[in-house]
């Protein structure tokens, strides 16, 4: 089995890369240990976040750092046992979040986020997946007047500087949009109107992978860690023992990427922010119409295909260490107070890992000093949003075309 390009990893990022390379006339094999869209791209909150032009910076306020350091926050927790491994990347993350550095990073990040809806729209149309998508935006709920006013001011800035649209909702308007939510706890909300949402994010990845297959692409199964350099390029072994070869390889293994690239001498300081989800039965008289973020508590609830999906914030832990879903348990209690919800639907909380870089930007392009190896990973909180844009940009780089935006800020050779 011989291809021009082997794409390792069939999450939102890998599938999108495979589709765009295929569109450039390359013969492409997509390679994963399981069906497409079963990992991080399955369990996320399902928002194509056109509003997310400013990536999550490391908090700089001492009050926030203090509560985080003592593990008293709901939106972020850490495993002390992970600190020896993550302290270095976190220190860099802290430095990149200093105001001047952060503003430059945010400007670069915004250039990619601006491509998110259009690049998904093209693939959604081609994949005939319109029925999976809702276009009503999402709500950022606020509990205090002071924070609501700050959120409104920030939304105005994003509109002015990045064309991000929103509506400002007072308590009454919010109650009309979401009558199921308990009144009195909230003072209003920012309604981000541009983002699109998915009731089953994994199904969209699956629809994109089916499009790739219909267009003649091949999905193969096996362990990407079998990758080897050969005289002619690259090879992996499928789980059936067959050898697959290609001139070039794209590593798009999400949070597992560096496990492979390290073997070829490329070990950027990636760390993961783990997150959990659980589905709950919706009570008949307490319907939720939108995706809602309880901004001041740090969790999100979404009306998804399998029930109301509660997703948690960041847990700084090693990717393979056992689940500790304390944030989920604590947020569940708060969520029940805000919106009466039914029983848990899943037997266990789902756990995933956001692949994060200290400078908050994905890594897209040629792997330094490894000819024929390319990468697309490190999309942190917005990999579902940025998958198709990544595919388009990487395919342009790999075929010698000029990408739509400057790719230097996202290069694998940058200083992390
Ligand atoms: C709780 C939570 C909520 C989120 N909400 C959002 C959101 O609303 N919007 C948004 O844009 N982003 C969101 N994200 C982030 C987003 O989900 C990720 O950035 C994105 O899914 C990463 O995609 P990926 O393709 O890089 O990785 P993945 O989807 O994890 O894909 C990696 C693939 O590599 C495969 N793989 C790994 N190792 C091997 C191996 N050895 N051999 C073969 N195959 C292998 C896996 O099977 C998998 O299919 C959220 C994340 C979490 C955890």
From TrEMBL:
Record-linked Pfam families: DAO
Write the record's keywords in alphabetical order, separated by commas: Oxidoreductase
Keyword Signal annotated: no
Query: Which EC numbers characterise this protein's activity in its record?
Result: 1.-.-.-
- Stretches assigned to the FAD dependent oxidoreductase domain: 4-397
Q: Tell me if Oxidoreductase is a UniProt keyword of this record.
A: yes
EC class of this enzyme? oxidoreductase
| Family matches, as InterPro entries | FAD-dep_OxRdtase, FAD/NAD-bd_sf
Gene Ontology molecular function: oxidoreductase activity
Gene3D superfamilies, per this entry? D-Amino Acid Oxidase, subunit A, domain 2, FAD/NAD(P)-binding domain
- Output the Gene Ontology cellular-component terms: cytoplasm
* PANTHER family listed in its UniProt record: GLYCINE OXIDASE, SARCOSINE DEHYDROGENASE-RELATED
Q: What's the protein here called?
A: NAD(P)/FAD-dependent oxidoreductase
């Amino acid at each position: 089995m011989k291809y021009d390009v082997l794409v390792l990893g069939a999450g939102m990022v890998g599938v999108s890369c495979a589709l765009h390379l295929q569109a450039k006339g390359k013969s492409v094999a997509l390679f994963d240990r399981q069906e497409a869209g079963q990992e991080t791209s399955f369990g996320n909150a399902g928002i194509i976040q056109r509003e997310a032009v400013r990536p999550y910076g490391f908090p700089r306020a001492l009050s926030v750092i203090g509560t985080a350091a003592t593990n008293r926050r709901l939106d972020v927790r850490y495993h002390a046992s992970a600190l020896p491994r993550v302290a270095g990347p976190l220190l860099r993350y802290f430095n990149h979040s200093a105001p001047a550095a952060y503003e430059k990073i945010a400007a670069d990040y915004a250039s990619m986020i601006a491509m998110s809806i259009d690049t998904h729209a093209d693939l959604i149309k081609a994949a005939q997946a319109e029925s999976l998508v809702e276009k009503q935006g999402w709500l950022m709920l606020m509990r205090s007047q002071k924070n609501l006013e700050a959120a409104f001011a920030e939304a105005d800035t994003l509109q002015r500087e990045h064309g991000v649209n929103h509506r400002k909702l007072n308590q009454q308007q919010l109650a009309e949009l979401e009558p199921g939510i308990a009144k009195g706890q909230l003072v209003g909300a920012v309604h981000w109107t541009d983002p699109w949402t998915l009731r089953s994010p994994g199904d969209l990845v699956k629809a994109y992978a089916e499009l790739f297959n219909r267009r003649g692409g091949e999905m193969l199964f096996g362990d990407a860690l079998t990758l080897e350099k050969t005289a002619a390029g690259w090879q992996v072994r499928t789980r059936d023992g067959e050898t697959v070869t290609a001139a070039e390889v794209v590593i798009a293994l999400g949070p597992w990427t560096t496990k492979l690239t390290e073997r070829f001498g490329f070990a950027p300081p990636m760390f993961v922010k783990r997150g959990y989800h659980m589905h709950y039965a919706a009570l008949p008289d307490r319907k939720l119409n939108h995706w809602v973020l309880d901004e001041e508590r740090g969790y999100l609830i979404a009306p998804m295909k399998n029930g109301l999906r509660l997703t948690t914030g960041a847990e700084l832990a090693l990717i393979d260490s056992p689940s500790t879903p304390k944030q989920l348990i604590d947020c569940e209690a708060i969520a029940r107070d805000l919106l009466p919800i039914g029983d848990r639907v899943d037997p266990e909380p789902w756990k995933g890992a956001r692949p994060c870089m200290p400078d908050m930007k994905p890594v897209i392009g040629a792997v330094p000093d490894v000819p024929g190896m390319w990468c697309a990973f490190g999309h942190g909180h917005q990999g579902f949003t940025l998958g198709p844009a990544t595919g388009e940009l990487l395919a342009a780089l790999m075929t010698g075309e000029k990408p739509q935006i400057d790719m230097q800020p996202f290069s694998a050779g940058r200083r992390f």
